[in-house]
Amino acid sequence: MTPSARLGASIDLLTAMEAAPRKPADAVANSFFRERRYIGGGDRRAVSGMVWEIMRAWRRLGWWLTKCGADITPRALAATNLVLKGWPAREIADLFAEGRFAPGALTYAEQDVVTALAGGTLDNADMPRAVRLELPDWLLPRLEETFGETLEAELSALSEPATLDLRVNILRTNRRDAQNALGREGLHAVLTPLSPWGLRLNGRLPVTSTTPFKDGRIEIQDEGSQLVAAIMGVTPEMRVLDYCAGAGGKTLALAMMMENKGHIAACDVSEARLDGAVRRLRRAGVHNVERHLLQAGDKWAKRRAKSFDRVLVDAPCSGTGTWRRNPDARLRMTEQDLEELLVKQSEILDRASSLVKPGGRMVYATCSILRAENASQVEAFLARHSDFQLVPSDSTALPDSLRGTSMFSLTPHQNETDGFFAAVLERKSEADHEPTEL
Ligand SMILES: C[S@@+](CC[C@H](N)C(=O)[O-])C[C@H]1O[C@@H](n2cnc3c(N)ncnc32)[C@H](O)[C@@H]1O
Fold first, then answer.
1. Residues in domain SAM-dependent MTase RsmB/NOP-type (predicted)?
2. Nearest alpha-carbon partner for 387 in 430, 345, 348
């Protein structure tokens, strides 16, 4: 592709993303490239690189366009991005060429923007804090509440590209052998510092086409997600429930910790997600998992009340901890989305807690960095359920820095993982719990 055609495709992809504001950007990008198979690997990377760079600067680019009195369009954003990166106006005009795959010439209004911003920089001291930090206005106070003075450092780490973390499946191999097997295929992984099963690669590498991935020796899983499984402290004889199992990311890690013994029930309300677990379980050689689709009026949960040793509630959440991977998500999220999630999380917690046996434990986890979804949810749950208490994890799989903790909040800035939260809640044994008088 010519540089003009790459720019044209980037503008087309931004337009497709704008037309599907509720859809994750990477899902839009996948279908965009699937429909344009003539765009080869190198061009695809260049186009995605340009689009993701614009998404990471969306509010600041928009602020400059508004300041120039121009409309915020994909073309104008792309031109503004180039000029603020120091591209000369002449070269930008050449890129906006006419032709089959090119974007077409700059309009007079676009030329005015390029002229006005020549020599400028993306950041500006007059920008409101939410614009400078690339956040929707409503979200800023929530994050200030969570992080206080470290907010800027936390958000800056959340804007960096993520590492690619793998979990070694110790049912099939060990960390060193998996690392060597990847090395033989040209992928040089290092051991992750916190998870005992983690390997880390830098950049988007073709892991899924390697032999260790295909034969189930490794899974793609962020180190933070591995630590959520670790804090469960499951052992081979237990009955374990993964209440929001999705496609089984954490179920797989739990099955591995249980040496493929005991019993795991993996539940979800999404059949498609649960179906997605089948192939992964088979590839990993896991056979102690029963899948169950949760449905309204279902007797399944009632029959199993107070019967599980461990219950994991990996709740649906804002995903704010995964912004490194989904830079578009920080702008797509609305206040209403958050309010709805908070209600859903507390309902799920109440339902899942009825399945924990006396003396058993429930781990509440999210990939959110917002206090409202994390510690505040736990506090509200404990206020509703006097028969539960926060307890230190007894897991030996946690690193020294987290050993014996009852609650952790991981962030890219502090831990080089995605943002993850987990809290360990124990149902008091019946003798210890005095029912509240009515
Ligand atoms: C964070 S994802 C789970 C990811 C999964 N545990 C993993 O590690 O790959 C949250 C899951 O909760 C499920 N979910 C949403 N509402 C639910 C409900 N009321 N009960 C149970 N699961 C629910 C969603 O379908 C989604 O798969």
1. 154-428
2. 430
Q: Does 368 lie in the same domain as 232?
A: yes
In a domain, 150, yes or no: no
What angle separates helix 74-84 from helix 108-117, to the nearest 10 degrees?
30
Q: Long-range contacts of range 15-19, CB-CB < 8 Å, 24 or more positions apart? A: 15/74, 17/51, 17/55, 17/328, 18/74
pLDDT value, residue 438: 46
Q: Is 316 in the pocket of ligand 1 (CB under 6 A)?
A: yes
State the closest ligand 1 atom to the C-alpha of 367, by its place in the atom list counted from 1: 1
CB atoms inside a 10 Å sphere around CB 384 = 11
Residue 386: domain span: 223-427
CA distance 341 to 350: 14
Distance of CA 127 to the CA centre of its chain: 28
Choose the residue to mutate in 257, 268, 350 for probing ligand 1, maximizing ligand atoms within 8 Å of C-beta: 268
Number of independent structural domains in the chain = 3
The annotation places the binding site for S-adenosyl-L-methionine at: 268, 314
Instruction: Decide whether any atom of ligand 1 lies within 6 Å of the 292 Cβ.
Output: no
Angstrom distance (rounded) from CA 357 to CA 315: 20
Low-confidence ranges of the chain (pLDDT < 70): 433-438
State which of 71, 98, 127 marks the end of a domain. Answer: 127
> Which atom of ligand 1 lies at the shortest distance from residue 270's CA?
25
ipTM: 0.99
CATH code of the domain covering residue 339: 3.40.50.150
Q: What is the pLDDT of residues 222-278, one digit of tens each?
A: 999 999 999 999 999 999 999 999 999 999 999 999 999 999 999 999 999 999 999
**What is the reported pTM?**
0.90
pLDDT for the residue 298: 87
pLDDT at 26: 87
